[in-house]
Amino acid sequence: MYKIDKNMLDEAARRNAIAALEEDIGSGDITARLVSGMCEAEASIITKEDAVVCGTTWVDEIFKQIDPRVEIEWKVKDSDCVTAGQTLCDMSGNARSLLSGERSALNFLQALSGTATRSRYFFRLVEGTSVQLLDTRKTLPGLRLAQKYAVTCGGCLCHRMGLYDGYLIKENHIAACGGIAKAIDEARHLAPEKPIEVEVENLEEFKQALKARPDMIMLDNFSIEDMRTAVDISAGGVLLEASGGVTEATLITIARTGVDYISLGTLTKDLKAIDLSMRLLM
User: Fold this and answer.
1) pTM of model > 0.85
2) Residues acting as catalytic residues
């Protein structure tokens, strides 16, 4: 699985913050100019609902880009569970700077905490089983790394980051290459250091893939019975991922078939932002 380190987070937050501020402030925050440039203020970010926190680095970067003199004291850290009414951080600095950064900072914190909260919900559904939950590439444009990091804050795993760090050989790739075995052989030839996963749609394709010995096989829209059969046939010889049509109602049943992973696009694409607010004190 893909590992995200601090340097990657910092760089992603910097790029995201610059883009967000360009989008929001543009040539200047004309409303903030109503406040004296000499005015200092304090502020707090408060959650209005229970959540799993994610996005502190993005908030820090927003205010760093606007005004490095703004001070932020976090009361929580990423991955922490918080309850409605809880203060997440206290801030102090120039009032104009606090007001100009408010919306962009909250947008990141709300969205990423929403992703982390949803991921934690699904993570808890499969507690007690041996399965691990994976994200997908169904992320918001421009926020790929941010959302995948949020997934890990919720307890799930980051699959591949993009099309460059691991093979996922699907139906159209297989057809274009002339078969499962040929596709896997070509992948090994082109980039032997990259992990290889192949998607199969039935047990016959599964048996073909198993003979070609990829690192992982994705069971796409398999029935529960066929998943169990695939687990028995592989006998631990290859990692198995269940994907396609997974719902809350079927998740536990799939987890108990013995597959190693279940991938869920819903972790990132069905996003509900957490309700947060920033309260300013003059």
Assistant:
1) yes
2) 103, 138, 170, 199, 220
